[in-house]
Every structure is written in structure tokens, then in C-alpha cells.
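Quick one: structure for this chain?
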Amino acid sequence: MKIDLTNTTSSKINAALMDARRASGSTAAGMVLTLVIVTDEGSAYDALKAANDASREHPSRTLAVIKRAGRSPRARAETRLDAEILVGSDAGSGETVILRMHGELASHAQSVVLPLLLPDAPVVVWWPDNAPLNPAQDPLGALAQRRITDAVTAESPVGQLAQRATGYTPGDTDLAWTRITGWRSMLAAALDQRDVGITAAVVEGESYNPSVELLGLWLHNRLRVPVERVVTGGPGITSVTLRTKDGDIVLDRPDGLLGTLSMPGAPDRMVALKRRDTAELIAEELRRLDPDDIYATAVRTPVDRLRERIAGVEHAGPGGTVEQAHVEEHAVGERETPAATKKAAARKKTAQ
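Got it. Here's what it folds into:
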């Protein structure tokens, strides 16, 4: 069922939702949370489709907030709320309300959303793109117990991690972190099978992918070993190698579909590591609404803790650059040259 409301109010939208529920033969809500999606017209379709698919596991009221401030002075002066209500099969296992806010109303979206939240139910806010610098301080984010962003959609995805660390508040999470759940599970299970000491790790993946960086930072924090970052053509994360004295433990996924786990003294095993779509990622995030302390620790670790290999040249250490490595190597060579000359002269004199 679809209901269109033009130039409406939050109270009229609530009344229309009740009428639609009675018409469908269901007087009870039966929903476990409110999912607020803050997006634009270009991303609304994909975001709503992902939310509807996720609602089959988590029945919810989905509120899509689309801000249309207007390009001209006349459009910006026109304050209007248009709503599109979807119930039944069109809205997955819940209810969907698309809120298009025109003019000055776009700056006060929280005043429209607040009356539409399910009573006594958690609130989750998701920004598919264009997330605020500090989600917890955003007026809509302040209403939520869980705030979901996606660093992949930023202009500088890896640089966005630093911003997420600066503005982190318990309840924040990012889909770049959710994408590595399978990798973290497989690596943890592999180490549970063998009691070995890890001396170093190598993470390989495409450039400008925040999931690759987060996986490396997670390994660095949990194993307390140096982690090397290697850039490949992807897709996504392609390989993780854990160095041990008995040999390397390698989890390799070159095609983005199926992975291979190789361990010393054991046959290779094929593991499921398919790249998941957005609906699966959102469904995973909705399973837990408590703060993710492990994500907080990983995202707060500076990315320069990773040692990056570029065209066969490795950084001198955490926070160093390739240029610094060359300068330091050259400086060390200059400092050692006089000592080496004196030793050579002493050996020559002794030989004589």
C-alpha cells in the first residue's frame, strides 16, 4: 500500500500510518526499532532497498529524510513537508515513510522526525553518504543510540578514519568496519587452532579502501606486532599474512568471492569470504545496539602505524615516509663512513 501526502505534518503522517495499519488488518506495530536514513534523491532508492531487505530480519519503521533546501531564493523560502508512506509488501517487514523537506524545514529535520519515532524502541541513524563530521552532535544523530556512517563514500576514505576517530562517541560505527567481520572471524579461528607466536603481519588490498586500513589497525592492536600495508588492485582486501616461526598463515581472496586459508602443516581450506551487499551489512549492524569498543580502539589508532610498501620501498617506521627513509639511510651512511675509513686504515697498517 502506498499513500502520498503533500504539504503535510507529522501528526497527519502518524494518523495515515494508523489508518494503513488497520486497512492491512494489523493493529499492532510489531517493530523493534526506528531506522532513520539521511540521504538525497540520488542515493534514496539504493538505501531504501537495503533497509527493506534488512527489515526482514529486523522489522522496523524506516524514516527516509531527504532534504531539498532549494536552489533559488523562492524555493528556499517555501517551507513544505511531503511524505510518501509505504506499508505491506512495499515496505519489507515494517513501515517506510519517505520525508521530503523543502526550504527552511530541511534545517530542522529533527522536529519532523521526533514525533514519528516508535515509542520505547531504539533509534538508529544511517548516513549512506555525506555523513556529518561528528554524527553524535548532529541534531538527528543526537536522537539515536546507534549511528552508522560509511567512510567509503567520502572524498578521502582513509582520511575519513581520522575524522571518525576525532569525533567518536560510544554508539558510532562505520560500514567499513562491518565489511571486515568475516576476515576477523576467520583469522581469529585460525589462531585458535594453533598456539603460535605472531611476529609480523601483512595486509594486502586496494588503495583508498578504509576497510583494509581498519583490518591492519585491528591486527596491530590485538597482536602487538608490526603490520605492513601492501597496495594491490583489489577487489577490496585480497590477502592477509601472519608471520610465525613455523611458517606463514595466509588468508587469500583474490577474486572477492572465495578465500583460501593456508596454515603450516595443514592442507589448504576453502572458506566463504564473499563481499557482502549493503543490506547484509545493515542487518549485521542492527543486531547489536551497544557500543563497539573494539571498533573504537581500531579507529582511534593512527593509520601511520602501518608500514606501507610502495614500489618495493618500505617506510622506515611508524609515521615515517619514503623520503625520510632515504634521508635517514643516507645520513647513517655518512656517519659510518669516517669510522669505516679509520678501521680500514688500521687494518692496512697492521698488515704492513
